Amino acid sequence: MLDTTRNLVAQQMRQVWIDAKLCIGDGTICRTDLIKAFGISTAQASHDLTAYRTANPQAVEYDLSAKRYRRTKRGKPAYPQHLRLSVANTVRALRIFNEMEENE
């Protein structure tokens, strides 16, 4: 039961992070971004992107030439800004922490 709850929370965090990634920078995301940020498998990254796209079909489209998902002009964020920022900052902080641990 606890593992199931943890998995659901992790999946939700990745969905919010995908939304945040699409709202900042160049507005694109690919599987590699998720793999690097969360240390998940290629299959899990594909599943997460498909789930996001299914839940938000008008918000994102696949750019075949760039091999990346891109936020559409009509796409609106799926999550509130404070939640997107919180998850994005948490992932960034954990990445920095893990890099520091590796360098010790």
TrEMBL record:
<feature type="domain" description="DNA-binding transcriptional repressor CapW winged helix-turn-helix">
    <location>
        <begin position="26"/>
        <end position="79"/>
    </location>
</feature>
<dbReference type="Pfam" id="PF26109">
    <property type="entry name" value="WHD_BrxR"/>
</dbReference>
<dbReference type="InterPro" id="IPR059019">
    <property type="entry name" value="WHD_CapW"/>
</dbReference>
<protein>
    <recommendedName>
        <fullName>DNA-binding transcriptional repressor CapW winged helix-turn-helix domain-containing protein</fullName>
    </recommendedName>
</protein>
